[in-house]
Structures are given as structure tokens and as C-alpha cells.
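Sample pair:
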Amino acid sequence: MELPDLSPAMAEVWLAVSAMALLIVGVFLGDRGTRVVTWAGVAALLIVGWMVWRDAGVQTVTFAGMFVADRFGAFAKVLIVAGSVLSLILSLGYLDREKLARPEFPVLVMLATLGMMVMVTANDLISLYVGLELQSLSLYVLAAFNRDSVRSTESGLKYFVLGALASGILLYGATLLYGFTGTTSFEGIAFVLDAQEERSLGILFGLVFLVCGLAFKVAAVPFHMWTPDVYEGAPTPVTAFFSLAPKVAALALFIRVMTGPFGDIGADWSGMLALLSGMSMLLGAFAAIGQRNIKRLMAYSSIGHAGYALMGLTANTVDGVRGMLLYMAIYVVMNVGAWGVILSMRRPSGELVENIDDLAGMSRTRPMLAFGMAAFLFSLAGIPPLAGFFAKFYVFYAAIDAGLYALAIVGVLSTVVGSYYYLRIVKIMYFDEPAPAFEAPDGAVGAVVAAATVFVLFFFLFPAPFVAQAGSAALALFP
């Protein structure tokens, strides 16, 4: 029996070995070794990112056709690793103060990252599911990581139950596709679809169930019901992680599946995605207006942004996928900065607050933090010349170029409505009477917020490298 070529998957192998090694180290060091294990995890992930970037030009298929290495996968994996690294850095001070410092936290993040990397390189329904479940099982535990909190335990349980349901739906869709095509391979499914003059009803039903399962993972309406409760109940660093790496991985998987085996039947699924995109944008805009908890507001914001990103995929063009990838890259930076500020909402007494009103007058008590948060909120709203404007511009351009005028109009209206609740927070920070001041943020958190602020403010000076990288990644899917 010929062994598979491991070289395209060396980053994943290194990450798996590192996670297992750090788990053993954590067992021997106990809770006092959390910081050591976390920084070692950050170092291991940075090496993974370097390995992926080094081999970005490699285009090959291995593991009996189940694993594909290409520029698209490399681009998505770099974003996933960046989101995971930043989440670990943001978590350090919080875990120490809340007495949640346990070495299994960074190990779970690393295992979830491994699952995400397998997801975006999947070339078969079986490898897709294995990666998805490795990610999901780690995330279920992370959501309930604060065992002494009823809210955290409840969020973990809700995420687990609904996630298991979504996995069942996705598996049922995969079963139908296998039954009606005779293969689980992406190339095999594409070949069968290309050979059919008339689309089989069973294949279309399988595709619908598959899309529903993936829509749950990206928190697209109407499969978003878990998001606000899980975002609010989970420990804040876990919520930040949820909104970064898993969101990118799920959207990248969505792209891989829809443009791969089903790329030639875009007319059969573009209507579904247009509906998911439009509903997500509208609900994300309107449902966030009445929120008073900043974490719930960010949950609805993430639902809305998933809708904007899916607009690019609905176009089913190189420009659409390029816009979606660029959107994901910019979204990671905007979000990590915003969550850095949210993690800094701590009174001198040690109390961590989550209400939007607690930000009142922050421009006078913590002016630099308020400035950074204002930049992130303006960028999330898509106001030029900040980075968020370019993210929206490219997906809107792709939608209009593909003739999706109604969806683009819905996107514009949602942007206008969404701007209200972002600007309301800016108004509270700059014009309301100051609430009690927050503690100074941790050095690591402050550095992440500062770097993200610089990126968001000055992206318009150097967009070309990012657009070019996103473009070359998109072209890998459209040979």
C-alpha cells in the first residue's frame, strides 16, 4: 500500500503534534503552567502560519483525493491562524483574573484551529465532516469553559444541542449526495452533475440540506438562533475567538463547497444564498438596534456581516470570491480590535461590565481606547476611507457586476440601518456623562488594539497587496 504524500499537510501535522505535546506539558505543570502553554501555543501557531505561507504556491491533491492544497486554502488558513493567535493573546489577562487559567484552554484553541484548517482544505464530504466536527467539539467545550457560571454552561449546552442538529442536517445532505452520485469526492460529484442533462431531485435536496448545515456554522439567518445567547454567555475571550477564526473557516468552507462540486450549477443555488444573505443583513441590522449588552450587539453584528460576505459568494464569480476573502481579512482585524476594547471594560474593583451604557464618557476617562473603538465602529459601519468601506465595496461591486441588484439594494439599506447602532455607541462614548473609569488595558491587549487601529485607519494607503492576494486565492478556485 502506497503511503500518502504528507508534505502538503505538514502544517496540520505540526499543529496536531504540538497540541498533543502541550496537552502533556499542561498535565505535568497544572494550572500554574497556563501562561507557558499559551505562549508556546502562540509560537506553534506562528510556525504553522509560516509553513502555510511558505507553501502557498503549492497546488496538489493528496490523501486519496481528500485533501487539496492551493492558494485559496493557504489564504484562509493564514487568516484562521491569525485569528487564533490574537484570541490567545487577548485571553491571557482575562483568564488569570477570572481564575479560569487552565492549560486546556490554549490546547482546545489549537485543536479547533486544526479542525478549521482541515475544513478549508477538504476535497471530499468525509474530510469536510471530520474537520467540521473536530472544530465543533472543541468549540462546545470552550463555550462552557467557565464551569462555575450558569450562563457559560447554558451557552455551551445550547451550542452543543443546536450544533449537533446542524451536523445531522449536513450529514443527511451528504448522504443524499452520495446516494444519488455514488461518490463523496468533490471532483466526482462535479463530474456526475456535468454529465446530467437534467438535475436529479435527490441531488438538489442533498444540496439544500448541505447548505443549511453550512449556514448554521456561519450564523446565517434563519440558522442564527444560537449566536446571541452563546456570544453573551461564553467567556469574553471565547466569544472573541468565535467571531474570528471559526467565522473565517466556515465562510471559506462555504466557498470551497459551492464553487467546487457545485460551481457549474450556480443557477440552482444562487437563489438560496441570496435569500440567506439578504435575511442575514436585514436581521443583523434591525435586531441589534434594541440591544443593551455589547456582546449581544456584536453577535447580531456578526450575523449581518456574514450576510455581506455571502453576497460575494452569491455572485459565483472570481470578483465575488475575491471580495469575500478580502472582507474576511478586514473583518478579522476590525473584530479583534473591538473585542480587545470589550475585554478592557473592567472597573478598578475587578468587575467586568458588558452594558453599552458602561462606555459612557470613555473619551474623557480612556481617550485612546475610545478613539480605537470609534475607529472600529466606523469601519464596521463601512464609512470611508476606513478599511471596512473597502470590504463592503468589493462585495457590492461583485454583486452589481453579477446583476444582483435587489440584493445590493438590501445590502445598502442594511448598512444605513446598521450605521445607527454603531454610531449610537460612538455618541455614548463621546457625548454622555462619564461612567466610572475602566482599568488600563493589559499591555498585550493594548498592543493588539493599537495595531488594529492603525490597520483600520491606514488601510486605504496600501490596499493593493491584500486585494492581489485575495485575487490570486480566488483564481485558484476558477481554473
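The longest helix spans residues 150-181.
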